[in-house]
Structure formats: C-alpha cells, structure tokens
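Dear colleagues,

As part of the handover before I leave the project, I'm documenting each prediction I ran so the next person doesn't have to rerun anything. This entry is a single chain, and its sequence is reproduced below.
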Amino acid sequence: MAIQATAQRTFSFLRIAIILQTLTIFLQAVSAGLLLTASYGETLHSAGARVMYGASLLYLLAAVLAWKPGGGSPRPVWHAAGFLVLASVQVVLGIAHVPAAHLPLGVLMFGLSVLALARPRRSHV
C-alpha cells in the first residue's frame, strides 16, 4: 500500500512537471511575439528562458524520482534528459541570436512536450 502511494505521488509530480514545462514553452512563444511589438519583450523572453530551463530540470528530477522508488521504466528519465539537452541547445541558440534554428527548435520542443503530456500513463504497481 505504501509503495502504491509513493508511486502515485511521484507519478503526480512527474505529470505536474511535464505540464509546467509545456506551459513555460508556450509562454516563451507568446513572449517571442512580444519581442516584435513591445519594449519589454526581450526582458520577458530572457526571464522566460530561465524559467523554461528550470522547468526542464524539474522534469528530469521528477522523472528520476518516479523511476527510482517506484521501480518503473527508466524511459521517462531518458526523455527528460534528452529534453534538457534540447533546452540547453535552445538557450545557446537564443543567446547567439540564431533565429533560423532557435524558432524551429522551439516549435519542436513544444510539440515534444505536448506528446509527453499526452502519452498514456501506466500504473507502477
């Protein structure tokens, strides 16, 4: 019973982390639009990048916590680690002002995050 409660809590934490990540990526797209129209757009987009990167780190932490105590598959950990790599590349491309790669990678990251959110969940027990 305690194992099931632990698995459920870590599962919920993982789900919340993916939702947060997806939301922050969406907000980055909104702030990218503000770059073109508002004086504060660059500041907002820069701050959002830090939050998005933090959400990616949280996703990785949640995936590890869901895997270790729950004894589930390590696959979510690999997905989260790959996403953190993409987020790192995205930040570097943004700092280097390479919009030809930065924008499509952002769209890809949003799509992958939505897929992770939509992926069916199985019980760990």
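The two ends are 10 Å apart (CA to CA). The mean pLDDT is 88.

All the best with the project,
I.
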